[in-house]
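Troubleshooting: if your tokenizer reports a length mismatch, compare your output against this known-good record of 208 residues.
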Amino acid sequence: TDFYVVMTENIGQIQIPAANVLSIEQILDKNYSKNKVIVSGFTPLLSTDYALGENAFNLQKGEVRYNNTMIALNKFDVGITKNISLSGTIVIAEGVALIGAKFTTEVVPMLRVGVSGYTGVKSSNNSSSSGHIVQGYATYGKPTGNVTVGGIWISDDSPSLFQLSGLHRISNKVALSIDNFFFRTTAYTYVYNGAYSQTYSKNTIDGL
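Known-good structure output:
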């Protein structure tokens, strides 16, 4: 079997079977900085989140994403490992700022589970308060087509939410998504439909 031999600074020699190499291309200087290789393209819209709810897919190590929903909600995510990401969220209209973490893992093929936790502050009418949000969810499917069920607990007097969301991707830039939240008071059951979101992201992988 023929091999390509790659010499690396940190881990020595790597042999790659020629049959496993699809293509070889030059890394231009503009795409190489501080041991990071910038991968062409963007993470598809709604890959790890729906409009407002989350799913059990995660950013990979080194991936960074900015998500803006209807201008008011701004979220920034960073992939720490293939299972863990950190995020910061600002909701301008509500005066809310949150920081949090997300952990997801594959249970069996096509089924993933995850949990997210957030803590933050809310400022309004010359006063401020703090709170916490915990989410748990299970996602069946692939990033290109999936269904998610989950629950959301909020530390204040708000009712707990039940999430039912789904996605079907038509292309890398177009997807059909439904994002519903159910919550119940003593007399009524309410349904809230998520809003459309714009996601901008950049992928990176560690250089050799």
